[in-house]
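Homework-ish question, so no full write-ups if that breaks the rules, but can someone show me the predicted structure for this set?
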Amino acid sequence: MTILTRTWMLLMLLTAVSMWAGHGDSADGLGPLGIGLVLAAATVKADRILTHYLDLHRADGGWRVSFRILLTLLGVALFGIYVFYPMIGAALH
Amino acid sequence: MTETAAPTTVVAADGAADGEAADWGPLSSLPGNPMMWILILGELAAFGAMFIGFAVTRALDPATFDASQAQLDRLLGGVNTMVLVTSGWLVAIAVRRRVSGRSHRVAMLGAMALGGVFLAVKAVEYGDKIGRGLTLETNSFFQLYYLLTGFHAMHVAAGIVILGIVTWWDSLENLETGAAFWHMVDLIWVLLYPIVYLLR
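A: Not a homework solution, just the prediction itself:
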């Protein structure tokens, strides 16, 4: 099995994991674990698309690291907004 | 379908016939046309800012956002994610086949067909929402939902046209550049789907 096919299978699996983690009544929040799982799956998927579909593995290591940092910062920022903002709001009230 | 190793040379971005490669500085080590990578970086920055904006707007009014998000079809969104990553897989295979001198057109046509499926599912979603009176004017969630998914759908439509062009004018540089655009569209959706449909 080639790297492209393995990448595609991983992307499908992570999509299914995201759908499972994010399903349910919208009135119930996902909680920090669920939010972290969904964001981690999305970040890994984006990284795999960059590395293998977009062939970033052919580029200088600096590009791979830069894109990974960018994706990780986006994921961490979103995690912080979704998880910590309600806590801050509750504390202020 | 089998695949072979990716090409190891960077094609001159200006397609110089004299074999003289253009100097793109740090961009020269990226595969395909460096101009496409400038577009990819710009699109990632633009969508990244919109994703942060979406999350902050939701944090200011979580009740409205969560109630509105419940009106979305998470299963259809997930199915569309699978459709798009499968389409990206076919495009990546097409590039590998082109590199090894084999026919790539079946894979490209399959990828374009799946792009059409993505847009059809999106049209079904929009039709359902509009039929239930959920429009741009409903609230800030639906404004951002239509803005983000609509902007992305326009990229998908443009991507299908680009894939069609590079399928027939199929120099390796054309094919790699068209494929890079399609993978960027794929990449943005795998980030957009969880943010708009799942996180709460």
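Now go work out the reasoning yourself. Hint: Chain B has one domain: 32-198.
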